[in-house]
Amino acid sequence: MKRTCSLGVLMWRGLALDQFMNQCYGNCEDLTKGRQMPVHYGVKKLNFMSISSPLSTQMPQAAGSAYAMKRAHKDLCVVCYFGEGAASEGDAHAGFNFAATLECPVIFFCRNNGYAISTPTHEQYRGDGIAGRGPAYGIASIRVDGNDTLAVYNVTKAARSIAVNESRPVLIEAMTYRIGHHSTSDDSTAYRSVDEVRHWDKVDHPISRLRNYMVNQGWWDDDMEKNWKDESKEQVMQAFVRAEKRKKPSITNLFTDVYDTMPDHIREQMNETVAHVKNYKEQYPLKHFEDMK
Q1: 58-71 vs 90-101: helix axis angle to the nearest 10?
Q2: How many CA atoms lie within 13 A of 193 on its CB side?
Q3: How far is CA 191 from CA 155, 196, 201, 264, in A?
Q4: pLDDT tens string 129-181
C-alpha cells in the first residue's frame, strides 16, 4: 500500500520512466488508461496499490491486505506510507487498531515533514508525535532521523523482519522536513519563513548528507555527479517527449473495467456515446485519441 510521495519506492521496484510519464499524461500507454490524477500510480505487477488523494484511506486497507497475507501464509508484509497529517484522520485509528488486534504483518511508515500542507505539527497534535501513539495500540514503534538514508534503511529492514517473522505490525516515524511547496498550487511562504527553509536545505538535507558520506568513502565525486545528472536529465526529457506524442485512450474506456461482463445498460450508454461522437466528430479532437472500439 502506497500513497503520494512514494515515487522513489516505485522507481526502485522497477517502473520505467516511460510509464511514469505515460501516467502523468494519461495517454494510451498509461496503465490506468487515463483515469487517474497525475502521479497517482498503481502497478499490479509490482505490488503497488493505486495512490489515493483522500488522506488515510490506504491505512485500513493496508491492515486488511496484511491480514490476507497472514491467512495465506505468504511470509510477506505490507508497507503503508502516510504523513503526520494523515494520522489525524479516523482511518488511521482504524488501521492501527485492526493491525494490532489482528496481528497483521504491516509496516506503517509515517513521514513527519513538519507540515500537513499548511498546518504545522504544533497545530496538528499535542502529543509526542506519531510514534508515541504506537504503544497505546500495542504496536512496536520507533522514531528515526528521516534525513539519514542509512538509518531509515536499517530501521525499515528491522521492521520488515519483525512484521514477517513475528506477524505483527510496526510503526516507523521518520522525522524530516519538506523543503519544497506542497504542490504547484501551494505557496509555502504564506505559512513559513524563507530563512527556515534555507536552514534545513543547507544544514540537514538528506541528499547532501548521503552525498557527503559517499564522497568521504571514495564512492562519489563531482565528475560522476555531473555525468549522472546529465544522463538522467536526458533520459527524463526523452521519456517526456515520447509520452507527449502518444494519443489519449479511446473514450470507450469510460465504460470498461467496472464489471467482468459489461451489463446491458452500460453497453447501451457506451453505444450512445460512440454514436454521438461519430455524429458530431467535427466538434471533438478525435485525432488526439485512439480509435473507438
Answers
A1: 20
A2: 4
A3: 32, 11, 17, 53
A4: 999 999 999 999 999 999 999 999 999 999 999 999 999 999 999 999 999 99
Report which secondary-structure segment, H or E, holds 238.
Answer: helix 222-245
From residue 52, alpha-carbon distances to 38, 55, 57, 64 in Å are: 11, 8, 7, 16
Residue at grid coordinates 503497488: 48
**Continuous segment of H or E residues that includes residue 106:** strand 106-112
* Widest distance between CA atoms in the chain: 68
- Amino acid identity of residue 92, one-letter, is A
Residue 110 parent element (H or E): strand 106-112
Q: Calculate the dihedral angle through the C-alpha atoms of 109, 115, 121, 122, rounding to the nearest 10 degrees.
A: 180
In tens, the pLDDT along 216-237 reads 999 999 999 999 999 999 999 9
Phi-psi region of 75 (alpha: psi -120 to 50; beta: other; left: phi over 0): left
Percent of the chain with pLDDT strictly greater than 70: 98
The predicted model scores a pTM of 0.92
Burial classification of residue 230, based on how many CB atoms lie within 10 Å of its CB (0-12 exposed, 13-18 middle, 19 or more buried): exposed
